Amino acid sequence: MTTDATGVRAAAREHAVAVSALLSAVALALVFAVVLELVPGGSLPRPPEAALAAVPHVNAALSLTAIVTISLGVRFARRAEYGRHRVAMLASTVLFAAFLLLYLYRVAILGPTEFPGPATVEQLLYLPVLVIHVTLAVVCVPLVIYTLTLAATRPLSDLFDTRHARVGRIAASLWLISFTLGTVVYALLYHLY
C-alpha cells in the first residue's frame, strides 16, 4: 500500500462515522435525485426496450440472490467463519449496488412504475409494502456503509472492539426484510397484476 493510501485508510479509520455519513449522504442524494426526477432521463443513453423491460426481472434475481448471500453472511459470522462472512457480505454489497444502479437507470429513463392493479389492493397492500421496503432500504444505506467502513479500515482482530457486529446485525436484518419486501413489490407489479 502506498503512503497516500495508508493515510486515507488511517483517516477513514479514525473518522469512520463521518466517512460513513458523507458516503451515505452522497449515495442517498443520488437516489433521491433520480427518484424525484431531478436527473433528466434524456441525458442518459437509452438502451433497447427489451433491456429496459428486463431490468425488473434481473433485479428480482439480484434481490433473491442477495437474500441468500446476506443469510449466509450472518450464518458465517455466527460460526466465526470470518473469511467466508466477508466474502458473503461483499457479494451482498455488490448485488445491492448492481440492483440500485439498474433500478435508478430504469427510473431515470422511464419514471416510476405505476401500480396496474385495483385501487383497493394498491392502497391496502402495495403502497404499505412499498413504503416499508423503501424506508428500510434508505435506513440500510448508512448502516451498511458504516459496517463496511469499519471492516475496510481495520484488521479482523480490531473489529471486535468496534460496533461492527452490533450495527451489522441490525443492518443485515433490515436488509433482508427490505429485499424480501422488494420481491413482494416485484411480484405485485409484474406477476399478480
TrEMBL record:
InterPro entries assigned:
DUF420
Q: Does the keyword NADP apply?
A: no
Q: Which N-terminal stretch is annotated as signal sequence?
A: none
Which UniProt keywords are present, listed alphabetically? Membrane, Transmembrane, Transmembrane helix
Q: Does the keyword Transmembrane apply?
A: yes
Any transmembrane segments, and where?
16-39, 51-74, 86-105, 125-149, 170-192
Q: What is this protein called?
A: DUF420 domain-containing protein
